[in-house]
Write a structure and sequence with these properties.
The protein is an alpha/beta fold and about 350 residues long. It contains nine helices and 16 strands. It folds into two domains: about 140 residues, 3-Layer(aba) Sandwich (Rossmann fold), CATH 3.40.50; about 180 residues, Rossmann fold, CATH 3.40.50.150. It comes from Marinobacterium lutimaris.
C-alpha cells in the first residue's frame, strides 16, 4: 500500500462511528492505530486478523462472508480495494445489502488498481451520490445509498465453491478469493512429477505429512495416501475452505486443515513437509516471508524427515536455509522453478 492510501485509511478510521465495518485484506498492514469503538473488522488473512485481535480489535476471520450481518445494519463500510475483481464486486454487492438509509461506502485505492471503475460501478449498484477526492494517484471515493440496483455486479458467484475440470490434472473444488484458484500452479505440478524420486519412495506417500501453504490442496491430493496422517495449513480463508472441501470429497477423513501463518500454530512434527510458498506478486523475495517458512519447517520437521520445496529460480532458498538444515540439496530445475530438499534440521 502506498503511504498516501495508508494515510487516507487511517484518517478515515479515526473519525467516530457507531456501526462501522472495516473490510481488510492482504494490502493492509496489521498495526495501524488503536482499536476504534464501534468498528467491526472482517478479513481473510489469518495472521492479520490474529494480530488485530491481539491489539483489541473486534475482528473476524472469514472468506469475506458477511451473511451473518443483518440487512441495513451498517452505517459505514471502509474498504481499501482488493487485487481481485471478483472480491471487490462481491463486497460492493454486500454493501448494497448491509448499508442502511444514508449509509456510506468509502472506497480507497490507486488509479492503477481500478478505483475509478469500482467507484462508478458502486454508484450504479448503490444508487446514490458519489464524492471523490484525489491525492496523487490515490483516490478516496464516498458512495451513498439511495435506491440500490436490483442487478448485482458480476462477482463470478464469489461465495460458491465450484468444480474445476483441468484436463489431465483432474478435478478439483475451488473458488475466487484464492490465488490461482482456477488453474494448477506449474511449480506444484513440477514438484509432484519429481516427488517420488526426491523422497526415494513411490507415491502416494504414507506417514505424517504437512502441506505447508496448501492452497486448495493440490499437493496433498496428488502426493498423499488417504490413510496418511495429513495436515494442511494456509493463511488464506478461501484456501482453507477449498482445501477442506477437496479433502472431504476425496475421502481424506483423517486429514485436518488448520489456519496458521506459515505453520506457526502447529505443534506436531512431520516426517514429510511439502511446500510451494506463496512467493507471487505482493510478496518480497528477500523479505521475512521466506524466513518464516524455513524457520517453521525447521521446527516442524522430524530429525530424519524430508522437506520438499518448489520455488522460482530467483528465490535464494538454499542460502536462507543455511544454519537451519544440515542437508540442503537442489534436486532439479526446469528453467523456471527449482526443487529443494531440506533435511537434518539443526537445533
Amino acid at each position: 500500500m502506498t503511504d498516501t492510501a495508508l494515510n487516507l485509511l487511517v484518517n478515515e478510521l479515526r473519525q467516530p462511528a457507531e456501526r462501522r465495518l472495516w473490510i481488510v485484506d492482504e494490502n493492509i498492514p496489521p498495526q495501524l492505530l488503536a482499536p476504534q469503538t464501534g468498528t467491526q473488522v472482517v478479513g481473510n488473512r489469518f495472521d492479520l486478523i490474529r494480530a488485530m485481535r491481539e491489539q483489541g480489535w473486534n475482528a473476524e476471520l472469514s472468506d469475506f462472508d458477511l451473511g451473518k450481518l443483518p440487512d441495513a445494519s451498517i452505517e459505514q463500510i471502509i474498504y481499501r480495494v482488493s487485487k481481485e475483481k471478483a472480491v471487490v464486486h462481491h463486497l460492493i454487492n454486500e454493501a448494497a445489502r448491509l448499508l442502511g438509509p444514508n449509509g456510506k461506502l468509502i472506497l480507497i485505492g490507486d488509479k492503477g488498481e481500478g478505483i475509478k471503475t469500482y467507484a462508478r460501478k458502486a454508484q450504479q449498484r448503490l444508487g446514490g451520490a458519489k464524492a471523490e477526492q484525489k491525492q496523487g494517484s490515490v483516490w478516496r471515493c464516498e458512495l451513498s445509498v439511495a435506491q440500490p440496483a436490483d442487478a448485482p455486479l458480476d462477482d463470478q458467484n464469489y461465495a460458491q465453491m465450484r468444480e474445476l475440470d483441468l484436463k489431465d490434472a483432474g478435478q478439483y473444488l475451488s473458488k475466487p478469493g484464492l490465488f490461482g484458484w482456477n488453474k494448477i500452479d506449474r511449480g506444484s505440478a513440477f514438484l509432484v512429477e519429481n516427488l517420488a524420486e526426491m523422497l526415494d519412495r513411490p507415491l502416494p506417500v504414507e506417514g505424517s505429512i504437512l502441506d505447508l501453504g496448501c492452497g486448495f490442496g493440490y499437493l496433498a491430493l496428488n502426493a498423499c495416501a488417504i490413510s496418511a496422517e495429513l495436515t494442511c495449513t494456509d493463511n488464506n480463508a478461501a484456501a482453507l475452505i477449498a482445501c477442506r472441501a477437496n479433502l472431504e470429497a476425496r475421502g481424506y477423513t483423517h486429514a485436518q486443515v488448520v489456519a496458521s501463518d506459515a505453520g506457526d500454530t502447529l505443534q506436531q512434527r512431520f516426517d514429510t513437509i511439502l511446500c510451494n510458498p506463496p512467493f507471487h506478486a505482493g510478496f518480497g523475495v528477500e523479505g521475512d516471508l521466506t524466513d518464516r517458512f524455513l524457520q517453521q519447517t525447521q521446527r516442524l520437521l522430524t530429525p530424519n524427515g524430508t522437506a520438499c520445496f518448489v520455488v522460482n529460480l530467483h528465490i535464494p532458498l538454499e542460502r536462507k536455509a543455511q544454519g537451519l538444515f544440515a542437508q540442503i540439496h537442489c534436486h532439479a530445475d526446469n528453467g523456471h522453478f527449482k526443487l529443494i530438499q531440506l533435511s537434518k534440521p539443526k537445533g
